[in-house]
What we know:
The complex is a heterodimer. Chain A is α+β, with helices and mostly antiparallel strands. In chain A, 32% of the residues lie in helices and 30% in strands. Chain A has helices at 18-29, 36-57, 91-94, 111-118, and strands at 3-12, 65-73, 76-83, 121-127, 131-139. In chain A, a hairpin with a 3-residue loop joins strand 4 and strand 5 (131-139). In chain B, strand 2, helix 1 and strand 3 (42-46) form a beta-alpha-beta unit. The interface between A and B is medium-sized, with 28 and 20 residues.
Amino acid sequence: xxxxxxxxxxxxxxxxNESFIRSAAAAFCVPLNPSLDVINDIKTAVSEAAxxxxxxxxxxxxxxxxxxxxxxxxxxxxxxxxxxxKGIADVGLAMQPAFTSKPEDERSGMGFTFMQTFMxxxxxxxxxxxxxxxxxxxxxxxx
Amino acid sequence: MTAHxxxxxxxxxxxxxxxxxxxxxxxxxxxxxxxxxxxxxxVVLDLSGLTFMDSTAVGMIISRYKRLKSVGAKLYARGLTxxxxxxxxxxxxxxxxxxxx
Lengths: 143, 101
């Protein structure tokens, strides 16, 4: 399906950038005239993916980046949030509801569950020592 | 994001305004935990000014729910908006937090 619009963003993996990233993703979808619920779903899922990079991917987040590739097509959004960080050894385990590698930080471990619920498609790929890529799709019907 | 607590009849009303995510959850936790020092018999989360929350906030709420439960205090929420209502539903928070007006 031909892309209506494409966007690439590289932004520091620092705490505080979550808000900008989710706003950017939401704004990118505006031409499809999504409902408020769809916008909220995309913002929430993108926030989860960005947060994962910020808190898990890098030992030195300030020196590293989140890479976002987004494509708007007639019918929805395709977005990939990538990092070049430490990677996930067992993606299946990481995606189990309530699993968190940082239980001492009072984390819910629901990030991937939220991405799965709020988006229509989710694909997580990771290589230890190389990075992680979280691809998501949301089908958007014009309001 | 701003968070502050008010007290009435031994209950803590905890107001969170703006957007709550990983970047500011620390401030919200601090404000909440400061309020908890007064030993409220119940806590009401007033989320009417909260326009966004993600699973980071869920983690904070669950841990404080457990602490409150251990001292016999109940946790309520009010003022949920569309986005926060969806997050509560997806995370199962409705199973442990009673929504009031």
